[in-house]
Design a protein that fits this description.
alpha/beta; Spore Coat Polysaccharide Biosynthesis Protein SpsA, Chain A; 2 domains; 50% helix
Length: 320
């Protein structure tokens, strides 16, 4: 039987961590009883530089359940995508299959069993997909749907209504480890791996405790990272807009010449100012967007590590 690892990135999750540990240990026990996974399967909590007692609670859970609860302590806060990557890469050498899930218990832990079943049916990647968004506010639902539509329009291949709740086989994890870019967007990277995939659908719950770690600002940053990491279409759009403006400017030139030779010339202060501001703003926008791509290239070519691991807790605890 395969060894399952459940990777859980954590940032300031002291209010929910013990509940999350209990729920996930229950999943492991149930799957072990059903002989779907091996008895040495485990949960790996990844502490992403939390400012509260998250790491102390992880250590306490590890002391109580040393063979079921592991921990990874990052040296500093690096963000959700990097923390999750750290957990996946660390777990890859210890497991046969891996499930990633957030600590807030909004994702339905009971569908992990269906993910494992689909793995046994031959799937290397199984996505957890929300059935609907009834529990979201109108604003949250609108922005989320707009996000997925925008990503699709920009040519980024993602799974609609899927976040980072997924199962990956060991060989899928090995292939994932070959994607070494600094600008991480896992929802776009994982579909690039290929292999046989499937989805399981579930109803998302209310957060068990604490507050969301993905406010609007971080969601917008994630969306831009996803677009700029996988698509150059924004630059293509700017080029298209540039051609349109040149065409319109040519028409305006013809109009100005006709007006001049017919003597129908009026002071055009308003239109002139509007044109200057519009073109100036467009140029700044274009320069800024291109600068973002150049900046991302600059970050990539330095090849700095995406995260530093300070300590790892397993059944044979070690420090790195």
């Amino acid at each position: 039987m395969e060894r399952l690892a459940i990777v859980v990135p954590c940032y300031n999750e002291e209010e929910v961590l013990e509940m999350s540990s209990e729920a996930l240990r229950g999943v492991l026990d149930d799957l072990i009883d059903k002989r779907k996974i091996s008895v040495d399967s485990f949960i790996m909590f990844v502490n992403d530089g939390s400012k509260d007692k998250t790491w102390e609670l992880i250590e306490a859970e590890h002391e109580k359940y040393p063979y079921q609860v592991y921990g990874v302590k990052l040296a500093r806060n690096v963000g959700h995508q990097y923390a999750l990557t750290a957990g996946l890469i660390t777990a890859a050498d210890l497991c046969d299959i891996c499930v990633s899930i957030d600590a807030d218990l909004q994702d339905d832990v009971s569908v992990i069993e269906y993910m494992v079943d689909k793995y046994h049916d031959g799937c290397d990647i199984v996505y957890g997909v929300r059935k609907e968004r009834k529990t979201d506010t109108f604003f949250k639902r609108f922005t989320a749907q707009s996000f997925y539509k925008l990503m699709a329009h920009m040519g980024v291949n993602t799974i609609y209504n899927h976040a980072d709740f997924r199962l990956m086989s060991c060989r899928a994890l090995r292939q994932f480890s070959n994607y070494r870019e600094y600008n991480l967007f896992l929802r776009g990277i994982v579909p690039l791996i290929g292999y046989k995939t499937d989805c399981v659908y579930y109803d998302r719950k209310e957060r068990a405790a604490g507050v969301s770690k993905y406010p609007l600002k971080k969601m917008l940053a994630l969306a831009f990272d996803g677009i700029s990491s996988f698509s150059t279409r924004p630059i293509d759009l700017i080029l298209t807009v540039g051609f349109v403006i040149v065409f319109l400017s040519f028409i305006a030139l013809l109009y100005a010449l006709v007006s001049y030779f017919t003597g129908n010339v009026e002071p055009g202060w308003t239109s002139l100012i509007i044109s200057i501001w519009f073109l100036g703003g467009l140029q700044l926008l274009a320069i800024g967007l291109v600068g973002k791509y150049v900046g991302k290239t600059y970050i990539e070519v330095k090849h700095r590590p995406r995260y530093n691991i300070e300590k790892v807790l397993t059944d044979e605890s070690s420090e790195i």
